[in-house]
């Protein structure tokens, strides 16, 4: 349902609807972008099939964010064209107008949208058992309920000794979790296990491997025992009431461990935003190899666990085909905080996302992003506190939409902290798009981030073995240049364990 764009004239670039490799091949021959003309009220017309650079005027769908409008509506050249959509399909062409925003701007809008929805929702924090709290965000600080350790304890297996040696070693011993031993007198020693309570009168612990017992049962030190040696004193880690973690901390496996060690059975946490996934497309099979022009649905299996790793609770994954009525019913009937659609974001004959948003009067907060792949992605407000993320159907483009719009939206709805951006050197030069950001799968090696092949919008072969996506700015990156990376959840260790 897609026809290739043809653009002529200065600044023309034909890559809008080509895959990345094709597009980049063309870039080499294309002239540079025209200068921005802040005075231009309307972008110049685009040729008939520049549809991805355009969004769609359908009914009441409105562009809400003033910055969104200003970001691109007045731009000229490839990122600021406006015109009718592609060639008519069975259902005829869809009208469109360009409003794509830059990649950083799109992320900022998604994050702020989530933040204000979370503020408006005033959702009560949950009390969650530890075994259900992984991946949530603390809604209240975690304060120590007792000293840690809560008693003086041995750090080693060996003997608790009193005063200088040699010592008279008793036959009994003291184990972790057992009753306290009677106090030691000067010159006495008792066998002790790691974690056992230190008897009163103990001056240090002699490690098992540093002591020797003679025929008369006297214990000799092979290494001097300094006062306090290998004793963990009560309160060494914290005192009762100390603040261990701030509200807003992500509950990782280590946080669960600390909370348990500190005596917590439940955590006070922010509820996960509820997400419903609507998979669009008549061409999708749910089992077996592709056949007869049909393909396997790659997104239904991929998105739920990925969304969960972003802090969401996925309430349903529904396959709707290319049925405008079904999409309308599903969107209007959903009680999810966020509806995620896949496919149907462009202006083809059965691309129903924009028309549906128009029909229900949704506000388009982001309508196209200057990023490859994934530029037709969108973010809309359906109702107060209910949003829709439209992911393009091409699978890597959908990943791009997931990380560009869904991740910041869900992160702020889930009150998760923003990851620290970190740059890394790219081992190889990466060809850039002339005007758009590129997200390129990379593996992380000693020599830097290594860009992967198979990074076309319809391909998952690169990302399936990637550790991160490199954010390649317009114009590209040189070999050895530092580039921002977006970690993929399975490579970022931490909360990647949230996939189940
Ligand atoms: N005339 C133009 N056509 C297209 C343009 C353009 O600028 N002008 N942009 C292209 C780009 S870029 C993308 S991305 C896609 C986005 O299209 P949609 O979001 O409407 O997605 P569909 O058309 O429904 O599907 C696109 C492609 O992806 C396949 N697909 C869809 N869903 C799945 C799934 N769940 N699993 C695997 N593959 C899926 C689908 O079969 C298509 O091949 O539009 C271009 N067209
Ligand atoms: O080719 Mo499209 O850039 O969004 O996947």
UniProtKB/TrEMBL annotation:
UniProt-listed PANTHER family: GEPHYRIN, MOLYBDOPTERIN BIOSYNTHESIS PROTEIN
EC number: 2.10.1.1
Taxonomic path: Bacteria, Bacillati, Actinomycetota, Actinomycetes, Kitasatosporales
Role description: Catalyzes the insertion of molybdate into adenylated molybdopterin with the concomitant release of AMP.
InterPro entries: MoaB/Mog-like_dom_sf (IPR036425), MoaB/Mog_dom (IPR001453), MoeA-like (IPR038987), MoeA_C_domain_IV (IPR005111), MoeA_C_domain_IV_sf (IPR036688), MoeA_linker/N (IPR005110), MoeA_linker/N_sf (IPR036135)
Region (Disordered): 1-105
Pathway assignment: Cofactor biosynthesis; molybdopterin biosynthesis
Keyword rRNA-binding appears in the UniProt entry: no
Homology family: Belongs to the MoeA family.
Annotated catalysed reactions: adenylyl-molybdopterin + molybdate = Mo-molybdopterin + AMP + H(+)
Domain of life: Bacteria
Pfam families: MoCF_biosynth, MoeA_C, MoeA_N
MoaB/Mog domain span: 276-412
Keywords assigned by UniProt, alphabetized: Magnesium, Metal-binding, Molybdenum, Molybdenum cofactor biosynthesis, Transferase
Name this protein carries in UniProt: Molybdopterin molybdenumtransferase
Cofactor: Mg(2+)
SMART domains: MoCF_biosynth
Positions with biased composition (Low complexity): 75-84
């Amino acid at each position: 349902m897609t026809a290739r764009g043809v653009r002529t004239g200065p600044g023309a670039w034909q890559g809008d609807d080509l895959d990345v490799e094709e597009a980049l091949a063309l870039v080499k021959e294309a002239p540079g972008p025209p200068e921005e003309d802040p005075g231009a009220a309307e972008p110049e017309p685009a040729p008939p099939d520049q549809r991805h650079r355009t969004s769609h005027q359908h009914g009441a769908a409105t562009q809400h964010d003033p910055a969104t409008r200003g970001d691109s509506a007045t731009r000229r050249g490839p990122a600021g064209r406006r015109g009718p959509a592609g060639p008519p399909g069975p259902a005829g062409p869809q009208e469109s107008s360009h409003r794509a925003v830059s990649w950083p701007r799109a992320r900022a809008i998604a994050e702020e949208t989530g933040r204000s929805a979370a503020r408006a929702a005033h959702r009560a924090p949950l009390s969650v058992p530890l075994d259900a709290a992984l991946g949530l965000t603390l809604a209240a600080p975690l304060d120590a309920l007792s000293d840690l350790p809560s008693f003086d304890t041995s750090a080693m297996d060996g003997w608790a000794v009193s005063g200088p040696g040699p010592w008279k070693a008793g036959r009994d011993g003291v184990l972790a979790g057992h009753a306290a031993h009677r106090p030691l007198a000067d010159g006495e020693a008792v066998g002790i296990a790691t974690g056992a309570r230190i008897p009163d009168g103990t001056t240090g612990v002699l490690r098992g491997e540093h002591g020797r017992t003679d025929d008369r049962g006297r214990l000799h030190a092979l290494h001097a025992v300094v006062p306090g040696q290998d004793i963990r004193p009560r309160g060494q880690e914290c005192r009762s009431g100390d603040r261990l973690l701030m509200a807003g901390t992500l509950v990782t496996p280590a946080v669960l461990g600390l909370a348990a060690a500190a005596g917590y059975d439940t955590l006070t946490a922010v509820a996960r935003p509820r997400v419903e996934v609507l998979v669009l497309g008549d061409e999708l099979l749910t089992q077996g190899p592709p056949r007869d022009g049909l393909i396997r649905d790659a997104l239904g299996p991929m998105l739920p666990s990925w969304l969960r790793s972003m802090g969401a609770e996925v309430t349903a994954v529904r396959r709707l085909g290319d049925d405008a009525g079904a999409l309308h019913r599903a969107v209007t009937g959903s009680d999810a905080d966020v509806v995620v659609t896949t496919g149907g974001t462009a202006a083809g004959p059965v691309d129903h996302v924009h028309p549906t948003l128009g029909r229900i009067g949704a506000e388009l907060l982001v309508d196209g992003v200057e990023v490859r792949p994934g530029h037709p992605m969108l973010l809309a407000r359906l109702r107060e506190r209910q949003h829709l993320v439209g992911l393009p159907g091409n699978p890597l483009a959908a990943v791009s939409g997931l990380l560009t719009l869904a991740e910041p939206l869900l992160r702020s709805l889930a009150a998760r902290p923003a990851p620290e951006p970190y740059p890394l050197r790219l081992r190889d030069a990466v060809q850039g798009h002339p005007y758009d950001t590129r997200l390129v799968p990379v593996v992380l090696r000693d020599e830097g981030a290594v860009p992967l092949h198979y990074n076309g919008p319809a391909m998952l072969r690169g990302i399936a073995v990637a550790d991160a996506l490199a954010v390649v700015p317009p114009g590209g990156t040189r070999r050895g240049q530092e580039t921002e990376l977006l970690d993929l959840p399975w490579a970022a260790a931490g909360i990647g364990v949230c996939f189940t």
